[in-house]
Amino acid sequence: MVQGIIIPADNTAPLKTATLDSLQDYQQAVGGWTEAVDIPDLGVTMYVNEEGLIRDLPFNRRATFLWRFHVPQARDARLVGDVAVVGLTNDEGENTELPSELARRLLEPGVYRVRTRERGENRWHEEPIDRDDYLETVVWATLLREMSPALEVRIERVGRVESESNHP
What we know:
The chain is built from 4 helices and 9 strands. It is an alpha+beta fold and about 170 residues long. The strands form 2 sheets. Strands 1, 2, 3, 4, 5 and 6 form a 6-stranded antiparallel sheet that branches. A 3-stranded antiparallel sheet has the order 8-7-9, with helices on one face. Strand 5 and strand 6 form a beta hairpin. It is globular, with a radius of gyration of 17 Å. About 25% of the residues are buried.
């Protein structure tokens, strides 16, 4: 049994946690046969609908840009439909838990900033807009890097979103 996160193709829908215990759980999460897409740098596997492109499922912007940011060779690829994210497989071929740092970034409120620098330079520059959603920050960072291949791009957490309170 593995705790994972579902990234819906609907950009307005929130991410949700899911217990993925069997192949049927993965298939239900993505709406059909599954195909694994690894992001080794993050220690995760994303499961997508194997026939998603053929079935013309909706573009999953958040999952696609997460993949493209961490796997630049996937620059022209796109993921469609709902996506299940879990940890990479272990030596027995079974999925593992999602790395806790990534789960925190995906599920907990926070403020993120993109920093850039020209390759070979020492000084990092802050982009002018902070974002309160990790995946939206990933989208922006990926677009910057793809538009300007000479840039190095990184994302930093700079704070937490304060929740509104009725207390004085």
